[in-house]
Design goal:
alpha/beta, D-Maltodextrin-Binding Protein, domain 2, 17 helices, 12 strands
């Protein structure tokens, strides 16, 4: 056995391998993928890619990791030992640059089965996966972070429509609460609170103000009045959750909506994967819209795969097969529907997607829609400080003025 075969055998014996392993080398194209998509909805989405790889005569070995930190450690260890994985799920931005600087990334081919990849991809996506003149990452799905979900049964029973602003939702919430339902599904986990606060910031600051807020060269004190308004909305929402101090996992937060215990949830469109896994149907059992106050602005993040330099021809062939598979319009539609995001490319038919995904894809494709990419947690100090501040405000602070002073102190001082 080669070193790689021994390692693969060990991985499979540990229960982490989804494909066959044998002493003899397979010559079929093989996709060896390390990833951290481990929730039931994420697994179902990934299998949309796996099924197509197998249909095209390939082997699909998807090796799950508990989280990004574990995956990153495993990849670096395998690189040091000389048997890199063929494909890894990887965070974007500076994280891709780190691998690129090590000269270990296999660049993507310029052309797919249809046309040049640069003509297929949305410009915002292309900007994330190109360094210099080289395509260094395979984009998989766009996630729209400012997405709101509504329990269709509760909203129809009460005769409500998705609110256009946070003030409108607060008015609705009083009505929902009086009817015996929890208005808002929410956890006191720092990152979930930060995503909610981002959506409120987007309404009160606008797109340009939101961008300035996250500019670490600027003090946020210049936005004092708008931040006072945002914190007022934020603290009012504490009255409309079942337990303000409960720190649930995100899928447990989603379950409140799915089980008709809560009317609304704002947590990013990846929520769709868990709702569909629970057997719910978009448009019938749950409704979706841009978060209140979004005003034709989308906050987005990109999921991508990195191809690493490998010597084996069957793994190189698997890399090419994966590129063609992931960017196939039918696979993009199926994967996006199961995962909850939207396709990364032009030319995907709305009829192939669920109603929520199709609507977000339509809004994204409109020229008047503005797209903003919030900083990711791996690279920005202000984001980390904001999470700490927002959680402390939510759990410990009662007044808007105290909350404002705490936020200014944490982020500016």
């Amino acid at each position: 056995m080669t070193v790689r075969q021994i390692i693969r055998l060990g991985i499979c014996l540990a229960g982490l391998c989804c494909g066959p392993v044998s002493a003899s080398e397979t010559r079929a194209p093989e996709v060896e993928l390390l990833h951290w998509w481990i929730s039931p909805g994420e697994q179902a989405a990934l299998q949309e890619i796996g099924k197509r790889v197998v249909q095209e005569g390939g082997v699909f070995n998807a090796i799950p990791m508990p989280n990004y930190a574990s995956l990153r450690a495993d990849v670096l260890k395998r690189l040091a030992l000389g048997y890199p994985p063929a494909v890894v799920q990887w965070l974007g931005g500076r994280n891709i640059a780190e691998l690129s600087n090590l000269k270990i990334i296999q660049s993507l081919p310029e052309n797919g089965q249809e046309k040049p990849l640069r003509e297929l991809l949305f410009p915002e996506v292309l900007g994330e996966v190109v360094q210099g003149e080289t395509l260094v990452a395979l984009p998989v799905v766009l996630h729209i972070q400012n997405t709101a979900f509504y329990n269709a049964s509760i909203y129809r029973e009460l005769g409500l429509e998705p609110p256009a602003s946070w003030q409108a939702f607060i008015r609705q919430a009083r009505h929902i609460s009086a009817a015996g339902f929890t208005p808002l599904a929410l956890s006191a986990e720092a990152w979930q609170l930060r995503m909610l606060f981002n959506d409120i910031l987007l309404e009160v600051l606008g797109a340009e103000g939101f961008r300035r807020f996250y500019d670490e060269t600027r003090a946020i004190a210049s936005q004092r009045q708008a931040l006072r308004t945002a914190l007022d909305y934020f603290l009012q929402l504490r009255h409309f959750v079942d337990d303000p101090k409960q720190q649930r996992r995100w899928n447990e937060t989603v379950a409140l909506l799915a089980r008709q215990r809560a009317a609304m949830l704002v947590l990013g469109d990846f929520v769709t994967a868990e709702l569909m896994t629970a057997g719910l149907k978009a448009g019938d059992d749950f409704l979706c819209a841009m978060a209140p106050g979004s005003r034709a602005v989308m906050l987005y993040a990109l999921d991508s795969f990195i191809l690493l330099n490998v010597d084996e021809p069957y793994l190189q062939a698997g890399q090419q097969l994966l590129v063609d598979t992931v960017l196939n319009p039918q696979v993009q539609a199926a994967f996006s529907t199961r995962k909850g995001g939207i396709p990364v490319r032009y030319g995907v038919k709305a009829d192939d997607m669920d109603s929520c995904t199709a609507e977000r894809y339509r809004v994204w494709s409109q020229p008047e829609t503005r797209k903003l990419q919030p900083p990711d947690s791996s690279s920005r100090l202000r984001l980390a400080l904001l999470e700490q501040a927002v959680q402390h405000i939510w759990l410990e602070i009662g007044s808007v003025e105290q909350a404002l002073e705490h936020l200014l102190h944490q982020l500016d001082d």
